[in-house]
Amino acid sequence: MDDPPLTSFSVTHVSYDASDPVAYLCAWLALAPQILTVVYTTLIWSSREVEIMLMFAGQMGCEVLNFLLKRIIKGERPPSKIPILLSLLSLLFAASVCASRVYLSYHTRNQVLVGCAVGIVTAFIWFSVVTLARWTGWISWALDRREMTLLRIRDLVVEEDLAESGWERWRNVKKRRKAEKTDGVTKKQKIR
């Protein structure tokens, strides 16, 4: 009995010219979607913050749109992903990744420009949906659900100034430690 032929599962397969240091950097940039997935998962697990979950859902929506567009627009191109999700990131990072796609010959300039345009439109639509969900109270409603409470999901990004709360928390700990230190000296003096 012959073994069936194996197929490559090339989610992270990146081809580049090993003698070119720019291509090496571009190969790492090509892994941005996988790296972002790990970062989002880590942040969601550690912070339980709904805003990060919404950003991750936006990225996954871009990935689905990317998948569909590749099947609808069947142009000649090397295998890779259109950098749709990159419009959700900073422009500098997005521009670097887009340039790496062209540099590694994964995409033509036109394909990258179309991907960026679709990403910008998708990001605008997703931002509008999330803003509407906040404004109408859907996110607050979802966070009040028993399941969300059990998972300890929260929304501090909108409800609280994170920089200020971090500062206040640090100041309160510092005051408490100073008070404990002062109380410790007072108690030692009383013992003597």
Structure description:
This protein is mainly alpha-helical and 192 residues long. 70% of the residues lie in helices and 0% in strands. The chain has helices at residues 21-29, 32-47, 50-72, 91-103, 109-136, 138-143, 146-150, 156-159, 162-191. It is extended.
Kindly report the oligomeric state of this protein.
Answer: single chain
**What's the average pLDDT?**
79
- Label the overall shape: extended
Q: For the CA atoms, what is the radius of gyration?
A: 24 Å
Largest sheet: none
Sequence of secondary-structure elements: HHHHHHHHH
Number of strands: 0
* Backbone structural class: mainly alpha
Helix content: 55-70%
Rounded to the nearest angstrom, the distance between the terminal CA atoms is: 90 Å
Write the layout of secondary structure elements.
Blueprint: H1 21-29, H2 32-47, H3 50-72, H4 91-103, H5 109-136, H6 138-143, H7 146-150, H8 156-159, H9 162-191
